[in-house]
Amino acid sequence: MSPVHRSINTESKDKKQKHPFAQPLRYVDGLLLDHNQLTKRLKQLDMTDEHVSVTTMTAITGRWGFYTCQRCLNQDPTLFSSFPCGKCQKTCIYCLACLKYGRLASCQSLFHLRVTDRETKPVATGFTFTSTLTSHQLKASQAIIKAIDTTKSQLLVHAVCGAGKTEMLFHGIQHALETGKRVALTTPRQDVIKELLPRFKAVFTRVPLICQYGGSDDNRLTSILTLCTTHQLIRYKEAFDVLIIDEVDAFPYHNDPNLIKQSQRALKDTGTVIYLTATPRKSLLKQKLPTCFVPVRYHGQPLPVPQAQFTSFKRSPLPSNVYKAISEQRQSGRQLLLFVATIKQAEQLLPILREKFKSLNVEAVHATESDRSLRVKHFRHKAIDILVTTTILERGVTFPSVDVYVLKADHDVFDEAALVQIAGRAGRSKSDPAGTVYFFHEGYTKAIKSAIRSIKRMNQLGAK
Amino acid sequence: MRCLLCFKSIEQAVSWHTLFQPVTAQYCAACRPHLTKITGAYCKRCHRPQAKTKTCSDCAKRNQPALLYNRSVYCYDAAMKDMLIICKYRHHYHALSSLTKPVRQAFFNQFKTVKHLTLIPIPVSDERMEERLFNQATIISAMIPRPVFFGLKRHHQEKQAKKNRKQRLQTPNPFYLDPHLPLPTGPVVLIDDVYTTGTTLHHAANVLAEAGIEAIYSFTLAR
C-alpha cells in the first residue's frame, strides 16, 4: 500500500476514487531520501510524469578532515568516522550524528525529490474555529497572516504562558492553506506535538493532517499540513512555504546547531518562519526579528507570581515545610504539580509522598517512563491528585486548575526559561485564573531571581 | 574522545600515560555493555558453556566434521546481541572497536599450540556488501595480527538470523573458493561474529576440506 494512498485511505474508502493519484503526489515535493527509501518511493511514483524529478547529491562533502553531512548538516570533525569500504575498496567516511536514521557513507548518495509545476490551488480545510479572540490575540493573529503573505519573512511571537498561542495560529494556518501554501508546525518536544494534534484535528476537519515524531505511524506520509518534532525536519529540503516553530527556546533545539540548520533547509527560499515562545533566549532577541508581543493571558488575569522559600533538602527528600505547604494546598481543591530536578529525586520522593498522603493518588512521570502520556491523561481527568514530574511537563501542556511547587529550584536544569514556563502552568483556565507557585530552593540563584522579576515585569506590561 | 554508542565526549584525565599511549576506543559509563566471557566448563568442540567439559549433544550428532573445534570469547547474551545489532544492522563499523584487546588476548590463549596459522574471515555476499559496505568478520580478523586469506566467497542467501534452527540446518552450502588465489598452507582459523547452530562455519569448513586443507579451526566473538 502506498503511503501516498494511505493518507487518504484512513479518511474513508470512497474518497480514494474521488481523489486522483496526482493530487497528493504534489506533497512528496522536497523529500530528502537515501537509496533504500528512494527505491521504495519509486515503486509508488509514476516516473513517466515529467513533473517529478530526482536530484542526486553526494552524501558527505568536503575533505582533509573538514566534512559536512548533507543529511544532518553536521560539521563537527569529531562526529565523522572512517572505515575501509568493501564496495569501493577505499577509506570512506560516515556521519555519526545521524547514524540512528541509517548509516550514510561518503560513497553513497542522497536523493532530493522535486515536483515542479505545483499549482497553488485552494484547499478545502473544513475550518471550524468559532471562539472569539481577545484584542491582543487578534492583533497577533493579524501579524501572523501578514507575515505569511509576505515572502522571505520572519516573525517572533513573544507571548506569555497561557496567552493562547495556538489559537492565534489557527487563522494564519487557515489563510496559508487557502492560498495553497504548505505548512509545517514543529516543536522540539514530542509531548507538545501529541498535545496539539487533537486540537488541530478538531479545527481543520477536512485536511489530511499528519503527525510525525520518533516512532509515530505517519513517518512515511506527506501532506499539506504537517505537525512534527524538529528532529523530523531532517527528511525535508525546500519543502515548506510556512514553518512555525513552537517553543523555540526549548531543549534540544536551542543548543543543537544541526537542528537549526535543518529547519532552515526545510523551508523554501520564499518561505516564512514564525517563532513562538514565552521565554525567548538572548541569542534569538539579538537577531532583532520583527516581534509581536502579547503580555496578557487570554483571560486577562495576571500571571501568578512565584514565591521563593529557602528549604534544606539534606535530611529528607520531603522537608517539613514542603509537607506543610502540600497539606495546606489540599484544602484549596486544586491539583498539584510537583516539579523535581532529576529522575532519581522523583523516585525517592514518590514512596514518601504515598506514605504521608495515603488517601491521595500520587504518581510520577519522567522521560524514561513508558506510559507517561497515559498518566498525564489521568491527571487531566483528575484521577490523580499529585503528579511528580521532571522538566518534561515544563511547557506546552495545559491543566485547568493546578498549583505548582518546584523542589530544589536551585538545580542547574531549572534555568530562567524553565522556571518561567513552570510557573506558567498555574492558573490557565478562565474559571480559576489564580494559583500558587512555590520555588523551594537551597540557594537563591540568579535564575530564580530573574524568573520572578520577568514574571512581575510581564504583569506590569499587561496591566497597562 | 567520544563514546562509541552515544557519541558524547568522555572526559579523560591527562597524564603521562595518556599522552604517550594511543587512546583506544571506548564506551562511556552509561553505555558500557556488560559482556560475559565464557569461563568454566564448555563443550570441547563448539565451546558452548555447559555443566561439564565434554562433547555436547549437538556436536555428537555431527559425524566426522571437517571443523576440528570452535573457540569463542563471549556468551551470546542480550548485551552481545545489542552490540552486534548496532554493528551489523545499524552499520556502525566501529561498534566493536573497544573489544580489540580482549579478543586478541583470547585468541592467543586458545590457539597457542597452533603454529603458522592463517585467518579466513567468513565472507558476505556481494549483495550484502553493497548494503553494509563492510564485513563484520573482517573487523574481527583485523584485530588479530596474523596473515589473512580472502579467497573464500559466498553466494547471496536470506539472512541466517531470519531463519529458525531447522531451516538453518537445511540451508545449502553458499561458499566457494576463488580459483585464482593460492590456498594457504598449514592450519587455518575461520573467523566469524557468532556461532549459533554452527551451520555457516561447518559449511565453510567443508569447502576448505574438499580443497585439501587438513587442520581447520574456528574462532568467533560470541557463542
UniProtKB/TrEMBL annotation, chain A:
GO terms for molecular function: 3'-5' DNA helicase activity; ATP binding; DNA binding; hydrolase activity. This is DNA/RNA helicase. Transmembrane segments: none annotated. The keyword DNA-binding applies. PROSITE patterns: HELICASE_ATP_BIND_1 (PS51192), HELICASE_CTER (PS51194). Residues 146-298 form the Helicase ATP-binding domain. Keywords: ATP-binding, DNA-binding, Helicase, Hydrolase, Nucleotide-binding. It comes from the Bacteria. Residues 317-464 form the Helicase C-terminal domain. GO terms for biological process: DNA recombination; DNA replication initiation; double-strand break repair.
